[in-house]
User: Fold this.
Amino acid sequence: MSKPVADIEARTRALSPDQSFIIQAPAGSGKTGLLIQRYLRLLALVDAPEEIIAITFTRKAAAEMQSRILEALDNVLLNKEPKTDHEKVTFDLAVAALKRDQEKGWQICDNPGRLRLQTIDSLCASLTRQMPMLAKLGTQPETLEDAEPLYQQAAINTLAGLESGEGWSDVIANLVFHLDNDLPRIKNLIVDMLRKRDQWLQHVVLEHERDQMEQALVRLIEDQLSIVKNKFPNQFESELVELIRFAAKNLNESDPGNPVSLCHSLSSIPDSSAESLSYWCGIGELLLTRTGTWRKQFTVKNGFPPASGNKLEADERNARKKQIQGLLIALQKIEGLQQALAKVSSLPPAKYSDSEWLIVNALCELLMIAAAQLRLIFAERNQMDFIGIAASAVEALGTDDAPTELALSMDYHIKHLLVDEYQDISVSQYRLLQRLTREWSMDDGRSLFLVGDPMQSIYRFRQAEVALFIKTFHEKSLGNIPLEALKLSVNFRSQQNLVEWVNHSFKSIFPKQDDLITSAVSYSEAVAFDKSVSSNNVKIVPQYGRSYKRESQNLVDIVKEIKQKNQDDNIAILVRSRSHLAEVIPALRKEKIAFQAIDIEGLGTQASIQDLLALTRAFLYPADRVAWLACLRAAWCGLNLKSLFLLCDNNKDKTVWECVCDLDLINQLEADEQVRLQNFKVKFETISAQKQRFSLRDSIESLWIQLGGPASLSNKIELENCATYFSLLENLDQGGTIEDLKELLDNVSQLYAAPDLKEDGQLQVMTIHKAKGLEFDHVILPGLGRSPRATQGDLLVWLLRQRENQKEDLVLAPIREAGHFQAPLYDFINNTDKAKQGYEDARLLYVATTRTKKTLHLLGHASVKEKKDEILCDAQNRSLLGYLWPTLKSVYEQHMPASIEQSEEESAVVINQETKRLKKTWQLPEAPAAIQWHNSAADEIQTEQVLIEFEWAGETIKHIGSVVHGAIQCMAEEGLGKWTSEYIYTEQQSFDTALKQFGVPQDERKEAVERVVDALINMINDERGQWILSNKHNKQQNEYAITGVVDNKITNAILDRTFIDEEGIRWIIDYKTSRHEGKNIDAFLNHEQERYQEQLEKYASLLRQIGNENIKLGLYFPLLQGWREWDYRSGKE
Assistant:
């Protein structure tokens, strides 16, 4: 049917239902398709579809997975013939799954909700909902996508303890002194730590012994020294010792602080003990430059002075210099020696200083306090971030030694667990998987299926830890579950030339070996399924200097060329950072090239949103001068600069509003400007007078509409963006105002303008992160020459190393002290973290280059400099171009500009002073006529919630009835064993509170509470009341809401209580809190029955539509212990 697939054996093996797997699947290998096939295979074997759980990391991926499973099943039902071998396998598996579906009566196609395809975050939330007490949450909190304001508040609350006299005040004081009293910086550092607390919280809660951590440092040093010693060839040892002693002797006088000078007494190559670290540092200093590369020349600064003095001495110096250069040539051929020596030079000392250890302990305590403060804020607001939900889910499952009932229940119900994108798992999510599967054992019929690609792990900023994939793959186990490790290799997406180019380029970019500490992932070569070859699959467009505008124009030319040659192909412009599109977006718009920008253009960069922000600030803060001037300049007012100058320049002691109200100042303006200002003033005054009587959204939106805000917009997309802003105001509103303006600004900065959905999406612009999982015919990568911004260091850094027997070495280091430039331990761990980021940057580039099917276009500028009449170019440090430089360098050198001037960008900035403004005669259009709605009898919806007994009663009697109804519902659900007379008396305060909330006046509440108590005690002491509340009835419901059609009308009703008794009769009972002061109670009850008969029979008519039981109706009067019942007879009976 189709050509053979090179890795078909691994793909077939991965479908074995009785085996657990971890699968590495590179870009374009169809890993999601394989996961779908595995799911269908398991579906044909289980007793219920809920026994299979498939987990991914985004809602979009979960929805796609469900869609593809249902599509596979539909193809079978529609008898859609498969065209390829892959589709044939999927088809056959779907046939077996549907056969099982029919056997078990699942009806999956009609009930797709039975397929448990969910994100790992939703799984965590479902676990905490099932056991809120075990999760230590109580009521399920709202899950926050962005908890930044809560992190900020937790940091502020933590630092508030500085002068509180609490036990941790000294801890904070030590840190404040360490960082030179820079409280804003400390707050930001705490916030950064809270964002990733799942990574460090387990470390800081431990009791730390200084000796143990220093032993961990010793093992770290000795392990690295062992590596370099083993790599150093024995035949060069004596020669090296001879040369370094020569250099040390020369440096003892000129530079005694040089590490080489410490080696003057060295008699043999140092061993790998921690005490020998200084010697190895001297060797590294001799052979390597400060940047870790081999030295090219040796001078007096390195201990090799120029030939001088007598001939014997000069000859010796010349001979030594030649000797060291020869040795260096030989050593350069030893693979890995340079990197090993460079690492030795950065190793920290084996002991903490006293000040370091003091700050380590202070930070551990401080971070525990910050985490506790955050937990309190979560509890106060009933909100929580994803990290907190995941931690609570793990807690709800108990420990390895003491699993909870939930853990045992999940263990019983889950038979198969599938995890997509396993390379993106975090530490807390990894623990969750361990807890979920800890009771599993071999050959128990259960399976674990992990699939992902560590080469595409690019979400470290979301706490993804690719080292967990590496660990699981190499150990071939997760917890106590053995896993078979498989690798896929076939790329179904890209043409052969592209796959080969990626293989050639990234084999040298990626590290040669996996490494847990630095999260290094080695490259796994791919094989193209599409063997078609076309020329120029990869096109490089070199840029030089800061040629951003030229780069954007080149990009536009590429887009035009593709569109001209391949009209139906789609194109993607992918960037590392949104800021790299600053010149690209305007260039596309200038050429009128339509595109969709996916989460690219910040909402706050839109002129319409900036105007709304100014209007909001002016409305809330009358003294905000900048906001007021922006409002008067905006299109809805449109004052010119001259008018603004006349109003405000000589009146800086007044607010702008005071100037606007000053007639003398207004009279100085031109007539046209006066009309505009008066129009703005009148409308602003009208809305401002209602401040805090309406919500902030209503106030700002109403003012904006009256001023003509919608009329100043260019298109519907801008209107959608404004609606997004108004929704944000509604969410942040607190009593008609916003307490923290920064929170509003931060939220606006995190929102993005809506894409233009009118476009067909042929050209899409997005970040590389957003493009992961997508594919395009053509991919353009601009801005490769740009470097990312430098990030500040963390407050506390840590290094965790695996030892033998599952033991771990933990090393902690505090942030560098303010004003100090050296902190060896902190720098070492921080450099390890930078290495992690460097490897992830390379993976990001891999993701970008593997999105394309046909062509890849690379644009990036190299820096240029002139040296000895020669123009040299090089890629910037940490840029994506830097990773590709070995591959692209020759292309850049071929197109080198003739002079540096030609490579520089002319950056003349022209500020457009023109402003768009409405005509001064603009008026708000008349509102359209109100739509007249006529309620037809067929469409009428009746709500049977009109309490007839309250038609004559006062408000207090009605509220007594509501409280009694609520209490009776609790009695029915909790049982009469709890609701004794004594218990009811203890609840009087609760009844009083409820009546107060209903608005019952204080002077009436005492008597009202007594009536509630009388009604409840009468009911529990009455035999009929006890029967009504008995929990022995079948199909019991309290306050049961039901909707149906009665007499051709949609009717809603709520039944106080309904159940089926032991004789199979359905009862519908209504409680009535009426009281009768006269003597003839029977006559009163008969009258009430007659009064409510029609209402209860409507209830019965509704229930008859969902059941065929005989129905009896009953009225119960708890204050009277009265009862009336009758049989229901429908009109058809």
